[in-house]
């Protein structure tokens, strides 16, 4: 069976790209179609000779290098770009979508299976926040008008093409709810997997004292609400280590006190050690699913998360972590004050993480794809 993989943006490493890597390893002969591809950042995961990049709009070649992978500049053009691909030589197309790739055209041949990380959040449930955030500054009113117009057109397109995939897979029950709400379609939940690497005996193998720091592992973008954790830890004088890169880093560094450290991108054993030695991992944003809590629990470390989104489907309250109710620093501070690491078992955390195994994910995907 000839399979093609489709993924929106290969410009950074995140949870969606990790899922794609699992699929790419499972189907090593499948080409990978994408809208934008940053070879410097992702060639070790997705080699250039395997990636097929959509023809960009005319202005792409005119952009300075630092703007070439800024997807905001391409929003109006993405629908046309995803519709330009011809998949008629394939038996199955497996797309992973957070905004656009569910809109590819297959016309029933090949079969299109779409793994949905979420309907585009900036078009639906976050649209007002995104527009408001973008409306500041000298050109704020112009940007606001542009986004209102662009998002309106994209919402119409998004709703119209939602019927194109033959099968919809949702990354969580929260995503399944949004698919039904915005697209009026049924879907099957297939949870993303946690990499077997995190279950190494090196990480969280024994009960031991933490090194008295809290940890965040995240891309540094505004909707992750890392500012809540910084404010809470500033107020309480708690040591917080932040792992990750992203466009919000400069803003976050400006508000961080002297107990906050930024570590940039980390992976492998170094990240595993950071997870293992942490008092708890903080997860302050509302996520579609979130692999970070599972990675933390696999290393035996509990998680303190906002009571929303995918975290509700992975964290067991009072056993593998705790929730704070309101999306503000005061609510998180209360949770941090009441948190006692000694109440949690590393083995119980690891057991919960094991329920989201790589084998379970690949078995489910294989069964769905099998003719």
What report would you give on this structure?
This protein is an alpha/beta fold and 371 residues long. The protein folds into 2 domains: 203 residues, Rossmann fold, CATH 3.40.50; 159 residues, Rossmann fold, CATH 3.40.50. 35% of the residues lie in helices and 16% in strands. A 7-stranded parallel sheet has the order 3-2-1-4-5-6-7. The chain has a 6-stranded parallel sheet with strand order 10-9-8-11-12-13, with helices on both faces. α2 links the parallel β2 and β3. The radius of gyration is 21 Å and the shape is globular. The relative contact order is 0.11. The mean pLDDT is 92.
CATH topology of the largest domain: Rossmann fold
Biggest sheet, spatial arrangement of strands: 3-2-1-4-5-6-7
Number of domains: 2
**Uncertain regions: pLDDT < 50 for 5+ in a row?**
none
Sequence of secondary-structure elements: EHEHEHEEHHEHEEHEHEHEHEEHHH
Question: What is the structural class?
Answer: alpha/beta
Q: Which term fits the overall shape?
A: globular
Radius of gyration: 21 Å
How much of the polypeptide forms β-strand, as a percent range? 15-25%
Number of strands: 13
CATH architecture of the largest domain: 3-Layer(aba) Sandwich
Number of helices: 13
CATH class of the largest domain: Alpha Beta
The major beta sheet can be summarized as: 7 strands, parallel
Termini separation:
8 Å
Task: Quote the average pLDDT.
Answer: 92
């Amino acid at each position: 069976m000839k399979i093609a993989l489709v993924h929106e943006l290969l410009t950074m490493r995140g949870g969606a790209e990790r899922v794609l890597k699992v699929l790419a390893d499972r189907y090593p002969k499948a080409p990978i179609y994408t809208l934008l591809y940053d070879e410097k950042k992702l060639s070790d995961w997705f080699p250039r000779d395997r990636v097929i990049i959509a023809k960009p709009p005319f202005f792409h070649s005119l952009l300075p290098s630092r703007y070439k992978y800024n997807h905001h500049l391409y929003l109006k053009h993405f629908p046309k770009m995803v519709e330009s691909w011809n998949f008629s030589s394939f038996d199955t197309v497996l797309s992973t979508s957070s905004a656009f790739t569910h809109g590819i055209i297959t016309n029933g041949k090949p079969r299109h299976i779409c793994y949905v990380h979420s309907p585009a959040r900036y078009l639906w449930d976050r649209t007002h926040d995104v527009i408001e955030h973008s409306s500041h500054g000298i050109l704020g009113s112009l940007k606001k008008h542009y986004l209102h117009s662009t998002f309106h057109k994209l919402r119409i397109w998004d709703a119209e093409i939602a019927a194109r995939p033959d099968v919809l897979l949702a990354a969580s029950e929260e995503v399944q709810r949004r698919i039904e709400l915005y697209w009026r379609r049924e879907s099957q939940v297939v949870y993303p997997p946690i990499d077997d690497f995190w279950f190494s005996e090196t990480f969280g193998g024994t009960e031991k004292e933490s090194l008295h720091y809290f940890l965040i592992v995240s891309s540094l973008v505004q909707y992750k609400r890392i500012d809540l954790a910084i404010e809470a830890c500033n107020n309480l004088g708690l040591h917080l280590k932040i792992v990750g890169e992203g466009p919000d880093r400069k803003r976050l560094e400006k508000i961080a006190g002297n107990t906050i450290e930024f570590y940039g991108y980390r992976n492998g054993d170094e990240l595993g050690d950071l997870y293992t030695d942490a008092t708890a991992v903080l997860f302050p944003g509302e996520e579609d699913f979130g692999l970070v809590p599972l990675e933390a629990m696999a290393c035996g470390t509990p998680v303190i998360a906002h009571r929303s989104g995918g975290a509700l489907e992975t964290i067991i309250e009072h056993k593998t972590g705790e929730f704070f109710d309101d999306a503000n620093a005061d609510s998180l501070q209360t949770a941090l004050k009441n948190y006692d690491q000694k109440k949690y078992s590393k083995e119980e955390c690891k057991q919960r993480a094991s329920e989201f195994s790589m084998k379970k994910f690949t078995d489910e995907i294989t069964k769905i794809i099998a003719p």
